[in-house]
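User: Structure please.
Assistant: Input sequence and predicted structure:
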Amino acid sequence: MKSFRSVIPVVTLLFAGMAFISKTGIPAKKPAHSPQKSIALCGGSTCKVPSRAVALRTSLISAVSREQSTADMVLIKGTSFQMGSTEFSDAKPIHAVTVTSFWMDTHEVTNAQFEAFVNATGYRTVAERPLNPADYPGVPADKLVPGSAVFTPPSQPVSRQNPLQWWQYVAGANWRHPQGPQSNLVGKGNEPVVQVCYEDAAAYAKWAGKRLPTEAEWEFAARSGRKNTTYYWGNNLKPNGKWVANIFQGSFPTNNTLDDGFRTAAPVKTFPANPNGLYDMDGNVWEWCSDLYRPDYYQKSPIANPKGPNDSFDPDEPGTVKHVQRGGSFLCSDQYCIRYKAGSRGKGETSSASNNLGFRCVRTANKF
């Protein structure tokens, strides 16, 4: 799939390198100003601030609770399967892979879940952080404003050879404002969080006591026991005449007929779950995986629990570090992007985000 994530040096100049602006998105802890936040215990005529030891123990209990919880997750019992596809050069050859058991989020991480993480940690996503002029030589200072990529359909038919005709860098676009400053999350708490780069997704996963899935885990869970099907749900694009995934219908990129009911991301669990009980493993939003991307990795991938190559290489953009993305998005169309099909692979520059890119998490199962 070609998109802002894998084209044009000028766009890379604006989109890439954001992860190097700071080593952490969590600012130093500041004194609380709200009485409700700074005074934890009130009773009668006295107010007591908990001791440092009590506060620390409480925070550790909360962290342990997150790490042990499997709420809204399903157990994927590991075994062997055939991974890959003959339809895509970077997904060849089809090869045997064995994965051990793991827990997987039933749906993509939502805006409400990501907001809880931000509120608890003060985390700032890469798209929200100031840009360092040293990372963008030649770009005017007044153009170096925080923002991200937003799908903006052209008003008239265009060649599908140049993704810059429908991707724009929008100042102020971030997870709180997915399509720019004029957009917001009111009433969208149950939609998948977007405008998150790999660093953001990994930070959330760590806070939640989870991790991002390997590419092998993701595909194994998506296939759900099915073999050699065109799509993860089967061979028919519209089983029983119904859309079962949020993808693009109409003439891409100008005219989305909205046959599936959605112009952008749909609330999680809108479309049917697969036999594993997982939602939106096709379409809706792309999902980050933990693996670095190389198109030749499957030629030498280990059989047991492959975790991706040690380095990243994309011949389309040599020198750009990329991670694997899976599942496709609401912009996938048989006219342009068919990487929502079973076994296909996506790729994205590690510090870049967009309004069709999110993630879900997994946790290793202890004994199965």
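The radius of gyration is 21 Å.
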